[in-house]
Hints:
alpha/beta; Rossmann fold; 2 domains; nine-stranded mixed beta sheet; two-stranded antiparallel ribbon; 11 strands
Amino acid sequence: xxxxxxxxxxxxxxxxxxxxxxxxxxxxxxxxxxxxxxxxxxxxxxxxxxxxxxxxxxxxxxxxxxxxxxxxxxxxxxxxxxxxxxxxxxxxxxxxxxxxxxxxxxxxxxxxxxxxxxxxxxxxxxxxxxxxxxxxxxxxxxxxxxxxxxxxxxxxxxxxxxxxxxxxxxxxxxxxxxxxxxxxxxxxxxxxxxxxxxxxxxxxxxxxxxxxxxxxxxxxxxxxxxxxxxxxxxxxxxxxxxxxxxxxxxxxxxxxxxxxxxxxxxxxxxxxxxxxxxxxxxxxxxxxxxxxxxxxxxxxxxxxxx
Length: 306
């Protein structure tokens, strides 16, 4: 038998009339109150876990890299933290700048936090791809913090004042100790602000290995998604490496997990063959792997990745 507890309270005249009306049906005022409270709690719980409502509320954010959005159901979910990782010189920073450029074109405020490069270096890199980020800085849509030594409190204050929709951290390896990262109160404070404000974030990290090694770190487990960048030579006679991008993780998203080759164009990164190739690569068969091997090694030699 359930425990019963006395309740002493007062209610308005109108509420009392309602209570008395239901008392005739259920037999006692305490029974009416108990049924009402239990019903309220059930409705609240049902509202919280309504999967259909949640799925309808997922807003997709276009990445701005030709061919990539098709691999992740049209874009990353808004407010996600995506880990962009891989060995040095595979295109991670270029990819992240291109992500911010897509937001700027939509009049979204964006921030680039660099812990290793000066602002001038970042601007020069963007100019090589024809991105006039100086215009967006002048208009107040973009902020770049180069070689930053900002504290956690200062970063959060910047969020509150600037109200960005997209941000990039380059890179977390410099800002946090990988072994203490997930327990860090600093990162948890920043992450809470990102979640609360629904800021879409790319967090760049470094790997000492390529796609051939299945090894993950604390940054990968933290992220809502993981996008891995790599490069490799098809054979010893090939003078240039082929660059690859692989979506390894993306919560609440159906993803294409195959490695996809991409090139550096004068406008940034682009998957080889773009949409047509993306569709073919998505076929779950051994022919997909064969298609990758048969692709030519293509790279614009005049545009260096970072």
